[in-house]
Amino acid sequence: MKKTVTITLVLLLVSISVAAQNSFKVKIWEDGVPDSNGITTPEMDEGNGRVSNISDPDITIYPANEMKNTGIAVIICPGGGYVRLATKHEGSDFAEWLTENGITGIVLKYRMPNHHHQIPLEDVQKAMSILRENATSWHINPKKIGVMGFSAGGHLASTLLTHFDSISRPDFGVLFYPVITSDEKLTHKGSFFNLTDETDDETLINYYSNEKQVKPNTPPVLLFHSNNDKTVAPENSTLFYEALRANDISSSLHIFPSGGHGWGFNPDYTYHQMMKDILLDWINLITML
């Protein structure tokens, strides 16, 4: 039994290593960014996959395992409060796992707003259009491209899910402990402040309070949260789910009893395997509809 477990673990580590080796980067704005976020200091690697001072965005593509390729692809938006990105446990770790399950994972290194609220949305919209333009050469079905996000990255993903044009509309969304609402009792004030500079402009505040932006053509969404999340209240997910349900959008909400905030792809998380099973089943089913 022990030998079987060891062999399985070795094969898993080898497959993950291959996925990482096959990955490649693409700059989002080859001809220069349309709007500067004003960050002039060098990009900073804070360790353990955390990156800040981002002014030059890109996507890292992890192609799906050729033998298992479903044609499904997911843009992954790591969290970090709109000041940094947690690109490992909320980025590459997820992408590498997705590839082994026939799904192309794309980690988006998006720019920080730095007093320019439109910047992150510009980047994720552009990333989606790049994927659709290159779908054939990257062995992706252009009608099976979703967006995934964590915490503030979940806010960005939910913004794309509710603010899109024909080429940037995702086909589905997966949100982990997302920041959704501007409601002072429920929002993550740091993320909203870093995005909007604590503006008094009600129009702008409502624009990014995404439970108010759900429409009948918003794509299906899968939401995960922890009941004891003290950083981003689980009501952020329930509000978004209620708005989706009110618009008759096929969606699912899973609130785990514990876990707090920021567990991402942490294998020590109590509900890690359950989360993976739910996620794969839901994505495979929703893309068949």
UniProtKB/TrEMBL annotation:
InterPro entries, per the entry: AB_hydrolase_fold, GDXG_lipolytic_enzyme, Peptidase_S9_cat
Statement: the UniProt record of this protein carries the keyword Lipid biosynthesis: no
Organism: termite gut metagenome
Segments forming domain Peptidase S9 prolyl oligopeptidase catalytic: 116-273
SUPFAM superfamilies: alpha/beta-Hydrolases
One Pfam family recorded for the sequence: Peptidase_S9
Enzyme Commission identifier(s): 3.1.1.72
Keyword presence, Protein biosynthesis: no
Residues annotated as signal peptide: none
Enzyme class of the recorded protein, top EC level: hydrolase
Annotated GO MF terms: acetylxylan esterase activity; serine-type peptidase activity
Coiled-coil positions: none
Keywords attached to this entry: Hydrolase
Protein name: Acetylxylan esterase
UniProt GO BP: proteolysis
